[in-house]
Write a structure and sequence with these properties.
With 129 residues, the chain is mainly beta. The protein has a domain of 89 residues. 11% of the residues lie in helices and 44% in strands. Strands 1, 2, 3, 4, 7, 9 and 10 form a seven-stranded mixed β-sheet that branches. A three-stranded antiparallel β-sheet has the order 5-6-8, with no helix packed on it. The N and C termini lie close together (12 Å). The mean pLDDT is 90.
């Protein structure tokens, strides 16, 4: 079963952080159940670059652009040490979990999954689902 968060029901108040061994897991609560990661469907994106393990897309025209900016701002305000946001000029990089080749018209599902320290910066990891 796939659970994808509907934009109209999303709330930053439902985001929780759980400390793990090598990273912090991002949890999202829906009706008393915690999901690992924040699962979203991305529409109206354009592919900038694609490899076997990475997908780089432009989301400036996406309906989810503002939501992703809000989530990025939420994490920026949560961490006082240097935070390396996952959106830069409307571009996000997503780690692919399979070898699927995406097109600009593909259905793209991603999970804002965990938080890691990388080169003295806090980074948020995004994965395809």
């Amino acid at each position: 079963m796939d659970l994808i968060i509907d934009l109209k029901y999303f709330s930053n108040d439902k985001i929780k952080i759980k400390n793990g061994k090598n990273s912090q897991k991002i949890l999202y609560m829906i009706d008393g159940v915690y999901l690992i990661g924040i699962p979203l469907k991305i529409a109206k994106f354009s592919i900038i670059k694609q490899t076997n393990n990475r997908l780089i897309i432009n989301i400036l025209d996406s309906d989810q652009n503002q939501l992703l900016k809000d989530i990025n701002s939420f994490f920026s305000s949560e961490y006082r040490i240097p935070y390396d946001g996952f959106i830069k000029d409307g571009i996000i990089s997503i780690k692919k979990n399979n070898l699927e080749n995406y097109t600009n018209t593909s259905e793209l599902y991603l999970s804002i999954h965990n938080i890691k320290m990388k080169n003295s910066f806090i980074t948020i990891q995004l994965f395809t689902i």
